[in-house]
Amino acid sequence: MTSPCVYFSLFYVVLTLCIIFPPPEFKSAGLTLEVIFQKWLGSENEMFIQYHVKRTSMNLFLHSMVPFGYILGLEYVRAYSYADVEQQLLPTWSYSWKVYVVTATLIPLTVCAFFFWWFPNLWKNHPVARKLALYANPGATWWAVASDINIEFRRINKISIQSSSVVRVVATDNWVIKISPYTLDVAHQSDTALILSSADVHPWSPHINDNVQFVNIEVKPTRQNARPFKIRLNALDLKDLQNRITRPITILGNVRVQGSLTDRFLETFSEEVSKNPVYSTTEELESCIGCMQVTANVKLRKMCEELPAHRDSCTNCYCRPMWCVDCMARWFASRQEKEPATWLSSKCSCPLCRARFCILDVSPVVQE
């Protein structure tokens, strides 16, 4: 029979992972350390820096107690289980167990020693305080920088991007901030270079024919003694970050950032349409009725060789040119199924007369 210590060990490992790396189910249920200790941490929106000074310290201490908590739980199970000593997970007080107990005890004691050094003089020696002190004006303290960041974080024009279950990137008017479990990295945009150094592509799902791309951005402050850090984002969130910050993001020449699925389809659709025979006209072309930004530049007319044998066959469209190629591509994509691999070979209906057409029936317009 399996020892109760084995069941407890498996349960403890799973529970620890769910607390350190909370899944969406735990977050929705409020089973995270931030929610449990919310009264002590305070409000992130009101006191952003103070909140994260407390949060990083709390995470460091509670996570350091995980090995010691396992000892207490395992000894409790051993004391009240019906299993014999020989059947237990580890022999009581063996050499390896003694080493583990000593190590598990020293880790939280070391963290407490750091706390005694950090917290005097209003957290002056805390790692977050020392990072902010680098940006303080002569004669000012890190509290002045913290106050500026707190004010900018309260504004509604900031962006917050959840890059992973435990890491978040925040961009305010003047700051780029990376929030992680034990640290808070900050950089002032005025003296910071952002370099998109690499990108990697991963399959979204084995059942979906699509990929997700992640980009790695190096944030390099030029401020003296300020350390660089890296942020990792989904490529779809890159545009939001670019729109918010004032500094340009330098993309290295060997890196190609892919857009969203729709953006990639628009590019492919335009390339395929440009290969079709052109449609010449002498009539005056008006603005595209979809976007009203560019002149209509495509015309639907049956050019494929498919015979009208059934109702899904392509038919002639007698509408005049009224759409641009991008709006037509968006309309075409919006009428397709969820499988992107079949989009180019699929069909759609004209937005106005509902005539069936395929991508071969979309002709570029040339005005004579």
UniProtKB/TrEMBL annotation:
Which GO cellular component terms, listed alphabetically, does the Swiss-Prot or TrEMBL entry include? endoplasmic reticulum; membrane
Q: Please state where this protein is localized.
A: Membrane
> Please, which domain of life does this record's source organism belong to?
Eukaryota
Coiled-coil ranges per UniProt: none
**Stored InterPro entries:** TM129
Similarity comment: Belongs to the TMEM129 family.
The name under which this protein is listed is E3 ubiquitin-protein ligase TM129
Q: Which organism is it from?
A: Frankliniella occidentalis (Western flower thrips)
User: Which lineage is the organism of this entry classified under, starting from the top rank?
Assistant: Eukaryota, Metazoa, Ecdysozoa, Arthropoda, Hexapoda
Give the gene that encodes this protein: LOC113202522
